[in-house]
Task: structure prediction
Amino acid sequence: MFDRYFDAVRRFFRNKVEHQAEDLVQRTFIGCVEGRDRFRGDASFRTYLFAIAHNVLRDHLRRNRRPPEELDLEKMSLVDLGASPTSLLAAHAEQRLLLHGLRKIPVASQVILELYYWERMTGPELGAFLGVPEDTARSRLRRAKQQLEAAIRGLEASASEMESTISGLEQWAAGLRAQLLPAR
Result:
């Protein structure tokens, strides 16, 4: 189980809480083992594992929030939460724009996009992850893409870089996915 899902769970945390990613990965797998009796098989194990990772992330962000006010991941971005820029070295300007754009949209939208592009979750899997019907999950995915496009357009970049990033989103996301794989 660990070998099969480690890379994906680490990638989930890496662009959100880069320096604490290893600890949060460990907490996720511990939570998975501790909660194994709660897994009913209604969704895939992968979806269940990412739901645990999402809860670990939310708890981490809530604990580190200063002042500890209400945490609304549907509205707040990592930038809003005081996250520092990632040290991930993007190979292309488009990848840098994508990373910065992801960090400017609400965390809930960032999570959906990363699960879709990096973990290749399907509509039904996203629905199970979110606990909503598939159509609702697809609507949230569309809204997240729109938020990302608006965030990218709001960054300082050349028009050609912005258009290339937006039109080639799947390509640039795939390149970042490969960079986010841990060196083991």
